[in-house]
Amino acid sequence: MAKNQASATTGTTARGQDAVASIVEDWRRERPELDTAPLEVFGRLHRAFLRYSTAISRPVERKGLSMAGFDVLTALRRAGAPFRRTAGELADSGLISSAGVTLRIDRLEKDGLIRRERDPQDRRVVHSRLTDEGLSVIDELFSEHLDNERRMLAGLSPAECRQLARLLEKLERSVLAAEGDA
Fold it and tell me: What is the pTM of this model?
C-alpha cells in the first residue's frame, strides 16, 4: 500500500492514521497557509455518511425497496392510523423530494404496499395509504433499521450520542445559514 493510501476496509493509512488525518496532513505539508480544520469535520462526516448509507440500504434492498420507497413508507407509518398522506404531505414530510413522489408512489402501489384513495370530501385530493402488507413490511423493516443504527452507535455512550445529536443539529443550522449567505 502506498504511504498515504487508505485501506478500504479500515479507513486507516500505512502510518496508522485515519484517512482524513492523512489528507489533512498532506494539505498541511503542501499548503501550510490554508486552514484545513473544515476537512476534519466534513471529511469525517462524509466518510461516516457513505458507510452509514451502505449499511442502512442493505436491509431495505433485501426487501426489494429503494431508500426513497422506504422513506415514503416510513412517512406513511409515522402519520398514524389510517396511515395515509397526500403526495404534497409526503413531499413536505422532510426526507422525500417532491419531484419523485409520484414515481415512488406508483412503484409502491404496484408492489401492493400502498393504495391510492380519493378523499370522500374532496374528490380532487388523493391520499396514499399503507396496505396491511405495507404496514407489516415497514414495521418489520423499521425495527431492523433502528437495530442497525444502534449497532453503528455502539462505540458511543448515551451521553456522547446526545451530545453528537445536539452538535449535528447546530451544524445543520450553520450549513443552512451559510446557504443563505451564498
Answer: 0.79
